[in-house]
From TrEMBL:
PROSITE patterns: UMUC. It comes from Bacillus pumilus (Bacillus mesentericus). One of its GO terms (cellular component) is cytosol. This is UV damage repair protein UvrX. It comes from the Bacteria.
Length: 422
């Protein structure tokens, strides 16, 4: 048996926007997101185009879901088929995150994806009668201000809140359910197939089935030693997750009280290869450097934040490094970010990236050395020249080569957003 008194007991909300893209599209058309039949399709002019989101009623009555094809949607006059408006989706997601900041500090919000966030509400409970009350207020505020439905799982840690969301909240009448450690044996252990548990994919399910493990309860009662021998650290992890144990923390605190220049980006698909992730890091460093130069500033502390996708267990990491000489040179910022990335990255699926430059000084205060061995002054001046070209001719006038690779996003963000129409 696991002694739960030895583990932290937090109050974590997992907030999931219901059929996010479809719901926003419905509201824009004056439709009820929960009652209309609506599909958001990558390209309405291509019959083989993928359904990016389907309204709850379309899923229920016509069995059309994310991943279906346009040609599978029945020719029914009640069904609305629309192109995605990615700029709008991202803008609404950002505004919903800002709404969360009215309830908890920024450091207690972790954006897991464009439509899902974790909130740690421990520190504000003195203002509320119960954790369910704050969840209801947040749910009501989102519906009142955006017209969008959401469901909320509440748990003693991130894992339990996510399990409560996926396995019960989405089916609950009011969309809000709370699980405690003590609920794990009765609510989680009966779950079958075992891949319904967050974090266990089909391949792992097949391996566990071969070992005679078909339910989460069977996994919880299996030999930890055997699981570790067969699956390594993952065996340890899935065993403890079967007991509801999760020690991952929400995203690191955002630095406050100082001037900084930064940019964060929620990726519109999972990034799994280092080259693709580094391409986006470089693009973000380029934007951060430009913003810094636009204000004739330089910075000494470089911070990199990486957020893992909702399919991963831990939230990600946020690390900083202070360099000897302040800079606003793109490659200086990028090289430091890559140093932090190579040190901390755990080979997990990435869904958000942020870069910040802080400890800001005036660029005019920088002293030039007699022997500029690294050619810093030339690089610095080159940055200002590139800024001038973009300011005069637009952001599309000049791109780095990485923006033309599969992982690059700058081209999309300059015209199309996330590969779809803006």
């Amino acid at each position: 048996m696991i002694d739960y008194t030895k583990f932290p007991r937090h109050k974590i909300l997992c907030v999931d926007m219901k059929s996010f893209y479809a719901s926003i599209s419905a509201v824009m058309m004056g439709l009820d997101p929960l009652e209309c039949y609506l599909a958001v399709v990558g390209n309405t002019e291509r019959q083989g185009s993928v359904v990016l989101a389907a309204s709850p009623k379309l899923k229920q009555d016509f069995k059309i879901k994310t991943g279906s094809r346009l040609f599978e949607i029945p020719n029914d006059p009640r069904i609305h088929i629309v192109n995605p408006k990615m700029d709008t989706f991202i803008n609404v997601s950002t505004k919903i995150t800002q709404l969360f900041y009215r309830y908890v500090p920024e450091c207690d919000v972790h954006t897991y994806s464009i439509d899902e966030s974790f909130l740690k509400v421990d520190g504000v409970m003195r203002m509320w009668n119960s954790v369910e009350e704050i969840a209801e207020h947040i749910q009501d505020a989102i519906m009142r201000e955006f017209g969008l439905p959401c469901t909320i799982g509440i748990g003693d840690n991130m894992l339990i809140s996510k399990l409560a969301l996926d396995l019960e909240s989405k089916k609950a009448p009011n969309g809000i359910v709370r699980w405690r450690y003590e609920d794990i044996p009765t609510k989680l252990w009966p779950v079958r197939p075992i891949s319904k548990m967050w974090g266990i994919g089909k391949r792992m399910e097949r391996n566990l089935n071969k070992m005679g493990i078909f339910t989460v309860g069977a996994l919880a009662k299996y030999s930890l030693e055997t699981l570790e021998k067969k699956f390594g650290i993952m065996g340890n992890q899935i065993f403890h997750h079967a007991w509801g144990i999760d020690l991952s923390e929400l995203g690191a605190p955002v630095l406050q009280g100082q001037v900084s220049y930064g940019k964060s980006q929620i990726l519109l698909r999972d990034y799994t290869t280092k080259d693709e992730i580094k391409a986006v890091i470089l693009e973000i460093c380029e934007e951060v450097a430009k913003r810094t130069r636009d204000h004739n500033k330089v910075g000494r502390t470089i911070s990199l934040g990486i957020g893992y996708s909702k399919e991963e267990y831990s939230g990600g990491f946020h690390r900083s490094k202070t360099i000897e000489s302040p800079t606003n040179i793109t490659m200086d910022i990028y090289n430091t970010c890559i140093e932090l990335f190579n040190t901390c990255y755990q080979h997990k699926t990435v869904r958000s990236i942020s870069v910040t430059l802080s400890k800001i000084e005036e660029d005019a205060n920088q002293q030039l050395t007699l022997f500029d061995e690294r050619g810093l002054e030339k690089k610095r001046q080159l940055g200002y020249v590139m800024d001038g070209i973009r300011n005069k001719y637009g952001s599309k006038a000049l791109f780095r080569a990485v923006s033309y690779t599969k992982g690059g996003t700058a081209l999309y963000r300059a015209g199309l957003t996330g590969g779809h129409r803006s």
